[in-house]
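HUMAN: Quick job: go over this next protein and say how the chain folds.
***
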Amino acid sequence: MNTINLGIQIIPKSKTLDSYALVDKAIEVIQASGVKHVVTPFETVMEGPQEALLEIAQRAQEAVLAAGADEVLVYYRMQIRKNADVYIDDKIGKYRSK
């Protein structure tokens, strides 16, 4: 099973709750999963096996709904190679602070 990258953007909708606080619930699920990830202003990118990442993504969106969102818009982007792994560091490692 290859390592892939999955970017997830969860946009919660709520008439009464702060959107950033709801997004934090999704990020907490991703952080607790233990997979390698990078949080950016627009999405969080995870690295790992596709099935595991999709399951984490499902739990993240469920956490936002459980925290009180009326609905969520969820956008996924995945990079998958046929016979090779995809690593976050191959793309952005040179830009990270040492």
